[in-house]
Design a protein that fits this description.
four-stranded parallel sheet; binds ligand ANZ; globular; Isoleucyl-tRNA Synthetase, Domain 1; 33 strands; Ubiquitin-like (UB roll); single chain; binds zinc ion; Isoleucyl-tRNA Synthetase, domain 2
Length: 820
Amino acid sequence: MPYDFKSIESKWQEQWEESGLYKAPDKPQKKFYCLEMFAYPSGDIHMGHFRNYVIGDVLARFKMMQGYDVFHPFGWDAFGLPAEQAAIQRKVHPRQWTLKNIEVSRQTLERVGLSYDWDKEVITCNPDYYKWNQWIFLKLYENDLAYRAKSLVNWCPSCKTVLANEQVEGGRCWRCESEVTKKELEQWFFRITAYAERLLADLDKLSGWPENVKIMQRNWIGKSEGVELDFTLEKSGEKLSVFTTRPDTIFGVTFMSIAPEHPLLKNIQIPANYRKQVESYVERSLKKSEIERTTVSGEKEGVFTGLYAINPFSGEKVQLWVADYVLATYGTGIVMGVPAHDQRDFLFAKKYGLPIKVVIQPPDQILEPDKMEAAYEKPGTMVNSGVFNDLKSEGGIQKVIEYSAKQGIGRRKINYKLRDWLVSRQRYWGTPIPMVHCPECGIVPVPEDELPVLLPEKVKDFLPKGRSPLEDVPEFINTGCPKCKEPAKRDPDTMDTFVDSSWYQLRYLDNKNAQALCDRKKITDWMPVDKYIGGITHATGHLLYFRFFNKFFKDIGLLGFDEPTVELFNHGMVLDSKGEVMSKSKGNVVSPMTVIGDYGVDTTRIAILFAAPPGKEMFWSEEGLNGATRFLSRVFRLVEMAGKQSIDINQKFNLSLLSETDAAAYRKLNWAIKKVTEDIQGFEFNTAVAALMELLNSISELVPGESRVFAYCLHKVSQLIAPLAPHLAEEIWQQLGYLDSVFKSSWPEYDREAIKMEQVTYAVQINGRLRATFDAPVNLPEEELKKLVLAQEKVLYHIKEKQLLKTIIVPNKLVNLVVK
Ligand code: ANZ
Ligand code: ZN
């Protein structure tokens, strides 16, 4: 390296900090809110984080130079399991562990010169932050959007702990491998389902979101339009409602299935000789995970209850089964089984020898139940369906629904797959739930002016036991009822950490406000977020909660827009050179800090940015670092050659007055300006770097003393490279004679005249005959010309299904194709 990157880096980092380069004005003229997903303070910043932050940093600096007032904050998602685990293993308090990690990580991020305004930092485990979680909780409660309900949780009887779904492996506890059971617990929920329709409909407004994320959210919300139809239990007459999207198959019902955990099962009289079987089946299925139960390919199991149900349309009597492919939490928890037209029902019927009755006839074949190898699930014509015969499925569905409504045996129904958000956790390290349980008054919210409810520092034991450790802290748990003032108990649970991350973008704006979550004016000035950058893993969890909270805030008048972020960008993963995920266990982790120590921040940035477009996965290689080193050294040397000379960087050159090499370099420069601008805008940073590398080649051909554009080009290069390699850019900018920061200079604009290309008309001959003509820029490189030829419709027509043997090009005149 021809320059000492260490001293350059620290020099500029200090200067930037001192001059307040990253401070956003209180009142922006032209705002740009650049947000990266905040970090879990685990103590080490790995290559994936680093890449994500660099992507955001490039954008923030670019926008600064484009004249935006950029708001670019950072913070810490500081509550959650790992801190607790560290506390249990290492006997340090979660707060101490967390705050120390934050300290170390913040220093790391400062050391790599990221453009964050640290004055706006948020730390979610601090009372001045989580107070507002509690405030939001109260508001949700006020609006009937926070409620308590019993819910089945995974329970390990030997660890005596609640397990998350991911902690259950094949029905066993991940830690002790004993069989997991289900336990009913009173839990807090947020009624996100009340927003299902808006969360779905507003996806259409998110033009700046990746299509795949929107599809994932759409599927997760899972809107399904159908009807509830009432069957009745034979003898007792008990109502058995089913939800179906295919009422046109009502005459094909040959059995019914009820979910094992359905409350009705406890109330209905199962004949004595069936009871044992049913009970043991129910117990077995409760151990399975939802995924095991619902995969289409999985074995469908069930047990007959000995009871029969009556089809309200045909009057037919069918068997009632308990089957665990039916989920208690979807629809009514009861399904009408139509084996001929539903694949799961088909497999079930085959397994247990239940009848198959065809009621939908396809247009092109006659279905025979005995010969069917799979259900026919597509629409068709209704048959064996009484008065509905000969209707097409679509019309039939409507007719059956109308008929059922008229008869009072059914009603139109829209269901969503989306479930309410279970937010209570029986853990220590989280936001206390601001509720009091009073023996007299029941559940009483803590008054707003008593917030925050502080998380007690001292707890006997952090080890989770399926009940919150806070239950064992008398000073915390015992309190007075806010209503009747008599002794009462605080809610012992803490909130899911996804609550913390659902609104942090607002707190950044006003992180010291003690009166409000965020000043309304600041929200109006800065929100919504202009670009949100983060991993695809958050497509349905975090990003859905984030949108839900924004809509709720709108409803309570905190803000005035529907969506928290206009544009979303998912960065790719960082893999090792063999394409494997970096992980401690594989021993292939490359620490960004080591690399930065050896090569410098800018070189590391360029290596990362050049290796792949930000949205794609990136393979880490040392080779990339060497390439980046050569590139930056070259920039530095050329600037040294240019020396200090004052130049009007806003001037334009007249191409016809320049020498041939100067004109070529000037053209190249303006192409590069156009390309770098568009590529940064379009998150194609790798090709932006490539364009600069090409530009350097052209500049290198100039003779500094003779060329009229040599120095001019380098002034522009310093600006163009600034978002990508900020320290070097600032250094050479100063060497070129500027006193103020390069980030205060305005982003270069290209000279339209210089990139105008003369067009020429090519003739295309195919096997010697003129077949087409087309226009192309003069002197187009051969490769691009070939692509252009093969995109011509007439050419395609003449060579289709033939083999292209040879392409002969006469520049700016003729393309000759030989095909066979
Ligand atoms: C009868 C039927 C016949 C069905 C047919 C389909 C095809 P979506 O689109 O996902 O909403 N179903 C209803 N509740 C269920 C539950 N709790 N657990 C498992 N399956 C359930 O699917 C709706 C369909 O899923 C419903 O329509 C029902 O099966 C099943 F030829 O009813 B159908
Ligand atoms: Zn009370």
